[in-house]
Amino acid sequence: MLQGLSADAGGPRFTPLVVVELVSDAKEEVIAWLLGRIRDQQQNGGAELLVEQLDHGVGDQEKVNPNLFVVGASWQRLLSGAEDVGLFKEYSDGSMRGFTCANKHNFKDFKGDGGSFLSMAECQYIIKHELDTLRAKDETHVPGYSRAKLYPGKSIIRRLQSKGILVQIFPLHEKEELKRLSFSWYKKVKLSLQPLDDIRHYFGEGQALYFGFLEYFTFALVPLALIGVPYYLFDWEDYDKYVVFAVFNLIWCTVILELWKRFSATLAYHWGTLSRKKAFEEPRPGFHGVLGFNPVTGREEPLYPNAKRLLRIYLVSLPFVLLCLYLSLYVMMIYFRMEGWVLSIHDEDPTFWTGVLLFIPSIIYAVVIEIMNLIYRYAAEYLTEWENHRLESSYQNHLVLKVLVFNFVNCFASLFYIAFVMQDMALLRQSLATLLITSQILNQFMEAFLPYWLQRRRNKKMIRKAQKRRTLQDKELPLVEQVRLEADMSTYLGTFDDYLELFLLFGYVSLFSCVYPLAAVLVVLNNITEVYSDAFKMCHVFKRPFSDPAANIGVWQLAFEAMSVIAVVTNCTLIGMSPQVKAYFPDSDTQLILWTVAIEHGLLAFKFILTFLIPDVPKHIQTKLSRLEFESLEALKKKRPLHGGKCWKPRSSPRLSCEEEEDEEEEKRRRSRRRSHRF
Amino acid sequence: MLQGLSADAGGPRFTPLVVVELVSDAKEEVIAWLLGRIRDQQQNGGAELLVEQLDHGVGDQEKVNPNLFVVGASWQRLLSGAEDVGLFKEYSDGSMRGFTCANKHNFKDFKGDGGSFLSMAECQYIIKHELDTLRAKDETHVPGYSRAKLYPGKSIIRRLQSKGILVQIFPLHEKEELKRLSFSWYKKVKLSLQPLDDIRHYFGEGQALYFGFLEYFTFALVPLALIGVPYYLFDWEDYDKYVVFAVFNLIWCTVILELWKRFSATLAYHWGTLSRKKAFEEPRPGFHGVLGFNPVTGREEPLYPNAKRLLRIYLVSLPFVLLCLYLSLYVMMIYFRMEGWVLSIHDEDPTFWTGVLLFIPSIIYAVVIEIMNLIYRYAAEYLTEWENHRLESSYQNHLVLKVLVFNFVNCFASLFYIAFVMQDMALLRQSLATLLITSQILNQFMEAFLPYWLQRRRNKKMIRKAQKRRTLQDKELPLVEQVRLEADMSTYLGTFDDYLELFLLFGYVSLFSCVYPLAAVLVVLNNITEVYSDAFKMCHVFKRPFSDPAANIGVWQLAFEAMSVIAVVTNCTLIGMSPQVKAYFPDSDTQLILWTVAIEHGLLAFKFILTFLIPDVPKHIQTKLSRLEFESLEALKKKRPLHGGKCWKPRSSPRLSCEEEEDEEEEKRRRSRRRSHRF
Q: Using CB atoms and an 8 Å cut-off, which of residues 57-86 of chain A contact chain B?
């Protein structure tokens, strides 16, 4: 995997892994300085990586950015980097262990010469990590840019990024690998499962977990879809049967979410991310504050008081979100009033034009909702940025929460209104079907057709370019062209929107399942096409993303669980409102409501007990984890001194390479042994 | 602290820490063998502790058991034991770190000669751990007892215990220390807080956390009590005000439980139990099964299939518990019917005898409840034992759950019936007051008067004995007498019953707070006396318990939280049922119920969000924990080989002492370094 591209004419003399693009008018000083720091030895605070500027290519184009650099690393540097990032690999005894240079030969598939031990995605992740942790020494600002301040310990790449000197940094695709992956993934019509391991191998754990969840979710809905079909076909408009269906649905939702946790833990264990300790998280690029010492690491970095952030969240963001929700509801009420007004006009004097008028409110409402979603998304990003979160994960969580709540209200408010205020089940069923089907068609268009069209346009461009440089006889694209092409591809912005879509679909299935059992069928169909369109867009539309060593689907698990709790409430209410159930309590509404509430509470309690009873990690994985922990405890008993007491001073000493560290280590031990002999 | 007792005439030549009592007719072989194993060096699989048989004392008593042994250890053995159990002590930089022999000089208060570095409770805990991990080598059975089977790796002490050869093993009290503790704790009337650190120092973390929780709970109730008093005094029988009170109460309950988690984390951090890694838990003494290899440790031990245990739990224990609950409800119904029947007799023909008859049902019901509680407790213990849990913690959790549910139903079922079926608020208030006050008086009697009486009887016995051995002139009790006296004291069975009592009190306060605001006042009064009686009984009635390195109150936190969720439901229902609230919805019960349910759901949601928003560990503790983790990650980067690959074979090799291990370690490192040089 590390061969193949390096023999190219005009290419660098190492396997290029990652591309760094600076602005085209970047000053010479900063380029020289950055390359120097990247190449410099680790003792001197460098990253000890290989980096080369890309040739200008054929040179006939004026507009191309000359400041494109490819970064690679020697095999040994990659190994010590793998240890730095705490990569877990399969050990010779079949368990997953943190990779260390010292006992590298005990890992499965380890060959001294490189080979397939580290996947290219892992190598790229390592290089990204090493670039990110390249820190300023005594520079007070970026050379040539006196306004881009630096202080000892500040990540250079992040400062360059936040000042716009660094345009982007992205990993390269592997054409051969990608061809193989896309063939086994979506290019053949097949009944087999997705090649999750291959996806993880190429795109990393975060992506693979998304596709795993998408597939799991689809399969989990199949039983519901199978039960839903006869309801639709035989017109079982009988709520007695709906009750059975709804209760099954509620328990099913809880069970599948719990089982997913177990499944995802199994996946994450085998991918080595489950027990991997997260390295200390650095501040995100946009984070700012007064310079001080981080209480955890003792390193110099900007500090921002938590109280101030909380004030911003509770006094500005929270009221803003509530205001937006209120606005969204207000718009919905206007829509319903317009709808009623138009209907009354049509009823009074039905002509062709009033018939057309009937569609106007829906169209306006749909457009307004889309605009609101768009504006809100920008506002949410701006506000979350302004809240100045120190960690990327915290920023993401706050953004997800904001967008989630608004989207939930925007999508479901009208359905809630129809169901519980208007109490019109026929209209509810109709709206639900309309919403599901339109959103499905829209999605397929945005995610399959649009990418396909983009891809065709790109192909044409490629052909035009190929014609220009007909002199080059080889069929393979030269590295320069590949890099320029990929630099132009859109950037994949993470799994956020994909999960959001699944979340809303899950809402349609679970919230109103008892009035529209066919929803599951529609969602299953949607998901099947979704797999293909998402796979296609990952492989051919976007730049390759850096792999993200996720151990689970994070905040989305919580979001799905919250949805399944709300589903209990809505379904119980819907059942309680049905005329068939009302018939059981002919003389007393009170009795009916009390029973409904009691059953709802019972179901909620049962749900929580179920969540509690099903262990989150399967027994055999749990055993393996305990074994690892037990062994590390046993190993700790073979005691040695901690390097304690000095952690409070900012560390500027560069990390050393494997061998040297060992020697230093040795020396330290000898000293400490002498100390303990004294006693 | 380690001096003082050793100079005693006839006593052993070391500080006695723990007493081991064998049955009086124990065979000579087993005694010789056990003492040999305890004294033997660690290389040979012994515990390397000091042990001596206690003198028969004055010798005039025939009935005394001669097989009493005191166990102690050398200072250095205690230190290496402290490392074995993973004790956390304060480091020179103020953080808490796992103690290791190698850098012992970097710990605060460490003096080479012993001194106060390890508290006596810690020493006793270490000795208990070392005795517990004393394992059989190639013995097939206990010498002299061919039916007490052994296999390599089986804990000797546990086998002796389960076969009844070992009667008990308990730590000794320290008279001086105890006198000082009891003076600062409860012997003076004072307004200061309890000396939690001293309690922890003497009794260990589990006890200290209980007293900390008791005190915290009392203080947390003071605001409620202060608000409750005017309600009672000025007869604010006005539900509008009760609504305010109830909502405040509900939010308050959530907040105090969350804040307790933070407070307990702070305590546990400073006591070194928060970040302490639990050693791998050994099977509990009564655990049995087919001999096999533990998948985690690779050691030989009995295995019992989990599926079988689950079958026992779900097919036997669960139905049994449900049956008992049904029975309890049935008995309650009989009580209410008897009550009604007696009332009707009295109403028909009111005489003195029918007046007396009025009390009969309550008395019978109270007695029956007590009997049921007692029988159920035995049944629960038997069933949980029969479920054959591998771990003591799992056994405890299952027992707590069983007893908790039954006690909850037994205590609150009649109140629920009065409140929601009979809807008689006056009777509810009266029953609540009666229950609270009687349970309080009973408790004070059982926990303060009874112990006092026992204590007086004990004192008399001591005086009688002292008269007999008037020849001994010293005022201090000789060790032999002290040991014999303490061996006769009752055994403290853990904090279970104390927490259960608090749990029920919490139920009275939270479940029905909106009809009886005075409950908080009564509970506060009860808790204040409870502190004194519990402290007295810990110091003077029971044997000293082994300290239990708890980091939190465990399953009880969950139980209290569950209670506060149920409280939301009951309080909302009570408020909804009140005539004052009903007056707002004069024409429609439905509206009233819907509003009540909506508000209840809102409160529940708010509660969960609040639980989610308040972090469980205070920021400054979190920072310290992350710093420790960060440092250990940094230290891990100073890599060294794992001792991997061999963990699957049963380990019979004895653990070595500090120094030797270091040498072995050194050798291993050298070998591995050679390996890594090869590459």
A: 83-84, 86
Q: Quote the tokens at residue B299.
A: 């050691």
On the question of pLDDT at A331 being above 90, the answer is yes
State the Cα–Cα distance between residues B424 and B409, nearest whole angstrom. 19
Interface contact B644-A106, CB threshold 8 A = yes
| Shortest CA gap A623–chain B (Å) | 6
Is a pLDDT exceeding 80 seen at residue A269? yes
User: Which range, of A40-44, A603-607, B123-127, averages the lowest pLDDT?
Assistant: A40-44
Give yes or no for A306 touching B (CB within 8 A): yes
Helix, strand, coil content of chain A in percent (nearest 5): 60, 5, 30
* Interchain CB contact of A649 with B (< 8 Å): no
Of the candidates B93, B601, B642, which has its C-beta nearest A569's C-beta?
B601
The pLDDT of residue B126 is 92
Model confidence over B50-107: pLDDT tens digits? 988 887 655 555 567 788 899 999 888 888 888 888 888 888 888 888 888 888 888 8
C-beta atoms of B277 and A597 within 8 A: no
Interacting residues of A94 by C-beta distance below 8 A, sequence separation 6+: A108
pLDDT of A61 > 70? The answer is no
| Tens-digit pLDDT profile for residues A568-618 | 999 888 888 877 788 888 877 888 888 889 999 999 999 999 888 888 999
Q: Calculate mean pLDDT across residues A433-447.
A: 78
The one-letter code for the residue type at A108 is K
Inspect the interface and report whether the beta carbons of B647 and A669 lie closer than 8 Å.
no
Candidate from A106, A601, A676 with C-beta closest to B645: A106
Does the beta-carbon distance from A102 to B641 stay under 8 Å? yes
CB contact under 8 Å between B658 and A665, yes or no, is no
Given an 8 Å threshold on Cβ–Cβ distance, is A626 in contact with B666?
no
Here the tokens at position B671 are 């070998």
Q: Is the dihedral of CA B220, B222, B223, B225 positive or negative?
A: positive
Phi, psi of A74 (to 5 degrees): -75, 160
Q: How far is CA A50 from CA A38, A127, A656, B149, in A?
A: 7, 10, 17, 66
How many C-beta atoms surround the C-beta of residue A335 within 10 A?
19
Phi (first) and psi of residue A380, to 5 degrees: -65, -40
Q: Which residues of B343-376 are buried (b: 16+ CB within 10 A; e: fewer)?
A: eeebeeeeeeeeeebeeebeeebeeebeebeeeb
Q: Kindly state the average pLDDT of the residues A221-231.
A: 84
Among the partner residues B601, B644, B666, nearest to A93 by beta-carbon distance: B644
Residue B125 neighbours by CB distance under 10 Å: 25
Q: ipTM of the assembly? A: 0.81
Token reading at A496: 């956020």
Residues of B in contact with A636 (CB under 8 A): 98
What is the DSSP code string of B307-363?
HHHHHHIIIIIHHHHHHHHHHHHHHHHHHHHHHHHHHHHHHHS--HHHHHHTTHHHH
Tell me the chain A residues in contact with residue B91 when contact means C-beta distances shorter than 8 Å.
644-645
Helix, strand or coil for residue A46? coil
Q: Kindly state the tokens that stand for B499.
A: 């927490």
3-state SS, one letter per residue, for B223-238: HHHHHHHHHHHCCCCC
Say whether residue B468 is in contact with chain A using an 8 A CB cutoff: no
